[in-house]
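Why do we care about 3D structure at all? Because function follows from shape, and shape follows, mostly, from sequence. That is the central idea of this module. The next example makes it concrete: a single protein chain, its amino acid sequence, and then its structure expressed as tokens.
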Amino acid sequence: MADPTPSGPLACVPSPYPNFSFKQRTYAKFTFSLGNNFEGFVVFSPPLAIVKGTPCAIANSPTFNLNVITLNDPNNVVATSNSNFNESAIGQGVNDIGVRVVGALMRIRYIGTELNRSGTATCIQDPTHASIQGRNQSELDSEIESRSVYIGKDWINIPYCPKTVNEYQFLTNNIPNTSKYPNIAAAVPYWYIGAWLSCSTQSKFEVECWCVGEVTGAPVTGQTLSHADPTALSAVVTAGSALVPHTASLPAMQENMLERASRYIATSTSYVTSAKKLGASALKFGEAFFGDSAPAMLEAFAAI
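And the structure:
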């Protein structure tokens, strides 16, 4: 959940054990206009932003006139990331690659005249990372993690946060066709970040989709050692659990995350400190009864 924009680091997911991976920052940028009913949508798939070869972001076309997110419309505006790795290379073979998301963000903003600025954006990261294909504005708004934001000149940020244990692992299964445009099904776990936009005119918007990811595998060059720290991983999960769409600056969001993470690490550290004090007390107790042989006896007990 590091800042995936150029102002952030090329980070990695803290792992329980060391591993090598290539860290990369990818992006997709585009503009689109609302449909002729003055409504529209834009949806982002972070896993597909780590690779290229299939769209990772989809927005409605100017002729859109429906009231549900329709990702498979052949007239949609689609964007592919600038990744160096092909989506077709994901797999479990000797020459295949594995990928995982470290941090991702979709941000949108109105780029029309101030005179025509109006309306709201209902923004969401699905709480279970299910696809939002086929949903309407009311369904998005009913989710606890959705937010309705007034449309303005400021960026509306919709950040990524992992939701399942599998998302901390490298994706090594081939991405099915039902997760790719124009065959996206409603139940696939890829298209889960998005927004429904409703205005009083056929407003135009700018979109940026950023992603920092890790890539591993025999054909991947430039791999470096990733950070190994299971406590830090738990802190990341705790800090990111409250991430919701917002218009605050990214530094402000990161400051809030760091505060939450530091509280978790402080608690974890206090447990370790207490354990050390308990061990020292046990050693003193043993020395009082058994003399110099106490350390050896404690080691023998620990080995049982």
